[in-house]
Amino acid sequence: MSAVVSGEKEKHGDEATAPRAPRVLDLPGVPEGAVCGPDGCELPPLGD
Amino acid sequence: MSETIRVDIWSDIACPWCYLGKHRFADAMARFRATHPEVEIEIEAHSYELAPDTPENFAGSEVDFLTTHKGMPRAQVEQMLEQMTQLAETEGIEFAFERVRHANTRRSHRVLHLAKSQGLQAEMQERLFRAYFAEGVDVSDPEALASLGEEVGLDADEIRDAFDDEDLGEAVDADITRARMLGVNGVPYFLFDEKYAVPGAQSAEVFTDVLGQVLQLQREGE
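Above: the input entities. Below: the structure tokens describing the complete assembly.
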């Protein structure tokens, strides 16, 4: 599973309000969880 | 020194996995607190719109929406909803899809942000989920929202004003923009300590484990 952290250094002034690009890391041992997206919802996993 | 785990959660009212995920996470928090009573868990819910293109006056069921707007075969939709209903029942949640009135959730999100400003966000969200999935309430209807809000302690006139409040509209948009920046393409979506993303309605066991991992990472200074 993923983790998101800021990949940029601290900014000041106008730059501080600019969008920060996230960087994805892993958090081990976490499975994919069921979600709903724009095209519908995932079905319950077998055996759930 | 007290320790705090921050949890940001993106969800939509018209999202059955979000409703299940909310309950599973609440269960996980109770388990975690039993073993870590010294740790505070700070939760903030955020807006996400799964179907912002839903007309505000859409009149139809969930089956109608998924078949006519999303092009899904009716049999597949009915099977999906039946499976969701059975799963929810095992977790003590009522889904009555035959009553659900598919709705644009934009106004609901404005009410949730109003509730957040008054410390009633969790209560309002729970009330909206139940109204949508179990009671067949049209959660795009201003008067229905005013009534639901009153039930949890909001002022009905403040809710009516919320539908034209620019700040609340911007708050909803800001949540959705942040979700986009995080790469969210499905909800529920959980972000721990503004770093660790856990998408989806995990089991309570997994959420409990995640809380433990995040606490450990805090203690290691990561």
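Note for the figure: The beta strands of chain A are 2-6, 22-26, 36-37, 40-41.
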